[in-house]
Fold this sequence. Notes:
Mean pLDDT: 95
CATH class of the largest domain: Alpha Beta
Strand order of the largest sheet: 2-1-5-3-4
Helix content: 25-40%
Largest sheet: 5 strands, mixed
Strand content: 5-15%
Amino acid sequence: MEKNLVNLIIDGKSIQVEQGKTILEAARENGIDIPTLCFLKDINEVGDCRVCLVQIEGRRGFATSCIQKVEEGMVVHTNTEEVLEARKVVLDLIISNHKVDCLTCVRNGNCELQNLAKQFNMTDIEFAGVRNEHEIDDKSPSIVRDFSKCILCRRCVATCKKVQGVGAIDTINRGFESCVSTVENKSLNDVNCTFCGQCIQNCPTGALREKDSTGEVWRKLRDPETYVIAQTAPAVRAALGEEFGMEVGTNVTGKMVTALNKLGFDKVFDTNTGADITIMEEANEFIERIQENDVLPMITSCSPGWVRYIEMNYPELLPHVSSCKSPHEMFGALLKTYYAKKEGIDPQKIFVVSVMPCIAKKFERQRTEMQNDGLYDVDSVITTRELARMIKQANIDFVGLEDSEFDSPMGEATGAAAIFGTTGGVMEAALRTAQDTLTGEDLKEINFEAVRGGEGIKRATVEIAGKEIKVVAASGLANAQKILEEIKSGKADYQFVEIMACPGGCIMGGGQPIKTSKERMEKDIRKLRADCLYSIDEKSTIRKSHENPAVKKIYEEFLEKPGSYRAHKLLHTKYFKRNKYNFE
Length: 584
């Protein structure tokens, strides 16, 4: 189909673009940079901040390039004296109501407002005056909200509504009193927030950040009486290097292990081992449900943001959710039982730190269900960003580090576990084990391409042991809602459903390195990180969870078999209806 093209001139350059595009899109496609602040492609295209102002010949005033469509013969100027001065005035007004504590802000050096202030040489504030005063909301275990740093770009609001379909936050009040808040201005802890952290990923400043746990971890590392263990999720190794200037999608597994050793952890284990155990339990549960005609479809339970979402919004569908704990919780339970006994360590002295791409794991860690004999499975959760900060605090040259291996015997994992970090990965890993279990064969066709890719919803039919199994993988809570509505209405004919709260899966988790809106337009961050994990899988000697020798040993020596009494006691749990709003 022939496209309708529009001819225009931007900064003296004659260009041709598809009709319907904005001036901003046309400029960027042709190597002309126009600064933005509130803009997020396909999510927040509202022109609120006015930083992307341009001049169009023959028209009075300025045009907002992120929403102004191109027209035939249009002549645009992006860097005239008037445009630059107008942008500077806009920035001055924004900064005048902003808490300027950049040196102590968590986003120092990675703040889009700070970058623009530097670009426009903002050395003084002309419109300084009264600033809005708001209390910091740090009640939740996962997110801290500091409105004194909010610039009302509404990127977080659009993300929560459009991408996640939750709508926990919105703009309230009018004029100078306008702010982004919740129902009745309550804490995020007391409303329908799922703690997915996508708002943090899209906030251009430090108005939203994760609850910092590094201080607690440092104290434990310095305590000679505490045996501190680190476990690292698959998605962390695909993104940590970005915090040190390395290319997106670089596999830094070996450097990450070395860094954790240098920080003083007594042992560094791989959560991927826990992921392999999760597959053993989850595949067994799935097979039992099929054979016993139990509640189907079975839905995965690895994503705590997703679990919190269904508990609040679709509690009647909770019987569909797998009883399996998430991999790091399973692993923590085994570290304080099997490993502690094997090594002769008092479980009371073990402090398990999970390094996760996810801030909802901070919430999950402190759920009362996630403990055994009075001990929590996991004692602290730090994000990819928090680990990077600890490495920098310790003055470790991360890029120059040599590679190290995970400690044994809890550091052996398969390729199936590595792909847990991307959407469709949990399902693919489970299908590999379910396939071999049901057929009794070591099948060689183990790549389930139909559930791969960046689409928000991926449906497929796979044949296992002569049976057709209908599956679907959804990422992003707005997509999860669509699948749940299908199940609720009886229209769904799936047997297995994977749901991840974050679009793209854990690789795009709320605790991962934050990218500017411009960086996201220039690179497919999601694909590059996912490709890293698929590459780890392809290069792995063992690519099926049930073939992991360490996992086999754990079952032989301790768990007996998947679904055993002990396995259920340690590795499984129940989820419950949760109120959306908790108002006193």
